[in-house]
């Protein structure tokens, strides 16, 4: 399908608390170059779904956009799909929140945001901006559509380190991530985006399939008992010279000053051993044998001594985990698996953190607060 040389999309990083926390971006492609505009949101007070939808559709009409990207769930779970606690798209993309049956969200503190987001999608639908029903022909050749986005997964799909949570992000985090985006496509912008605006920008890149590959996760949205269920999340994906190169770039890596899921096999009991670890150093020893030195805080260590410095050998690295042989640390019959940490993993293997009266929608921030981890 031939694409128009000019295309404009609206992208918003939704917030339900106050309008000022919504990040808004208008992205326009002209002759292969992307121009980003960051208009203000001339609304005040507590966001109202219908009021916000009216503003977004008015802005889209003014700018000639036929796609509005929204970072937030578009619907509830359909119980006829896979028997899990969340929507299909969320399971496939390892989303931190689980949108369940109407009114049920895990963690529970996500519930007001999820409800608000679904109401915004409903309001857009009533204004003539329906949810995406057919993702195979992307972008839609006609009509106007409201599209669910997911910035965290967009960063992963573009193979750029995810932007830290807003409360923890420093100016360098924002500028460095935007610099990485500019290496993937010619992007010009007047001024500098803030955290919320950058989240809107990265999500909106999925609207330009001649500059980025596009991936779609989920199943067709539908109504059950008069309520919208499921839906597709659309993501931008890095263009690559070859699939081999892409697979290499996507291999799992351990970054310092981050929490990870740690599993040892065999464990100390028949149930196995699982614990969140905070890695302060992960250093290849350049011996040619895969040896690494790992310094980490082990949140689940039973004897109270939680700081460790070990040597291990990398046995296998995939897109989703790192397998370590612990023989160099004296544990000749034991291996460890390091993988990304999610709320679902915490709930299953380390749910005591949810009893600490600490509230955060970011798993990294939650554990930092519970275990009083300070970053320089």
Strand content: 25-35%
Outline, from the CA principal axes?
globular
List the secondary-structure elements in sequence, H or E. Answer: EEEHEHEEHEHHEHEEHEEEEEEHH
Rg, alpha carbons: 22 Å
Cα(first) to Cα(last) distance is 50 Å
Tally of DSSP β-strands: 16
Low-confidence stretches: 1-5, 241-249
Helices, by number, come to 9
Query: How is the biggest beta sheet arranged?
Result: 6 strands, mixed
SS class: alpha+beta
Please explain how this structure is put together.
Helix content is 24%, strand content 29%. It contains nine helices and 16 strands. The strands form four sheets. Strands 7-4-1-2-3-8 form a six-stranded mixed sheet. Strand 2 and strand 3 form a beta hairpin. It is globular, with a radius of gyration of 22 Å.
How is the secondary structure organized here?
Layout: E1 6-13, E2 23-30, E3 33-37, H1 49-63, E4 67-71, H2 88-92, E5 98-99, E6 105-106, H3 111-126, E7 145-149, H4 151-157, H5 171-184, E8 187-189, H6 195-204, E9 213-224, E10 227-237, H7 243-249, E11 258-265, E12 273-284, E13 291-298, E14 307-317, E15 321-325, E16 335-339, H8 343-349, H9 363-370
Parallel strand pairs: 1-4, 3-8, 4-7
Antiparallel strand pairs: 1-2, 2-3, 5-6, 9-10, 11-12, 11-16, 12-13, 13-14, 14-15, 15-16
């Amino acid at each position: 399908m031939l694409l128009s040389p000019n295309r404009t999309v609206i992208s918003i990083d939704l917030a339900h608390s106050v309008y000022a926390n919504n990040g808004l971006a208008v992205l326009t492609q002209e002759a292969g170059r992307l121009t980003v505009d960051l208009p203000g949101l001339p609304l005040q007070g507590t966001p109202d779904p219908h009021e916000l939808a009216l503003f977004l559709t008015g802005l889209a009409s003014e700018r000639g956009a036929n796609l509005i990207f929204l970072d937030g769930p578009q619907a509830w779970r359909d119980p006829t799909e896979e028997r899990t606690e969340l929507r299909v798209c969320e399971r496939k993309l390892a989303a931190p929140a689980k949108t369940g049956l109407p009114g049920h969200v895990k963690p529970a503190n996500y519930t007001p945001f999820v409800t608000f987001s679904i109401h915004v999608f409903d309001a857009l639908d009533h204004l003539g901006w329906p949810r995406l029903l057919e993702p195979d022909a992307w972008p839609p050749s006609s009509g106007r559509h409201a599209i669910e986005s997911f910035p965290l997964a967009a960063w992963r799909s573009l193979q750029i380190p995810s932007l830290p949570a807003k409360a923890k992000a420093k100016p360098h985090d924002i500028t460095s991530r935007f610099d990485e985006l500019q290496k993937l496509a010619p992007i010009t912008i007047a001024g500098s985006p803030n955290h919320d605006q950058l989240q809107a920008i990265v999500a909106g890149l999925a609207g330009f399939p001649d500059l980025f590959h596009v991936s779609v996760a989920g199943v067709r949205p539908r109504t059950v008992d008069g309520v919208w269920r499921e839906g597709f999340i659309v993501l931008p994906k890095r263009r690559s010279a070859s699939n081999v190169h892409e697979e290499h770039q996507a291999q799992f890596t351990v970054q310092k000053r981050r929490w990870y899921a740690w599993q040892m096999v065999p464990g100390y009991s028949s149930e196995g051993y699982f614990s969140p670890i905070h890695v302060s150093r992960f250093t290849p020893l350049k011996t040619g044998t895969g040896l690494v030195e790992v310094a980490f805080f082990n949140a689940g260590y039973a004897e109270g001594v939680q700081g460790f410095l070990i040597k291990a050998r990398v046995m296998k690295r995939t897109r989703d985990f790192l397998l370590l042989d612990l023989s160099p640390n004296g544990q000749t019959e034991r291996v460890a698996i390091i993988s990304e940490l999610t709320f679902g993993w915490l709930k299953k293997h380390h749910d005591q953190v949810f009893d600490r009266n600490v509230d955060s929608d970011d798993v990294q921030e939650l554990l930092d607060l519970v275990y009083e981890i300070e970053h320089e």
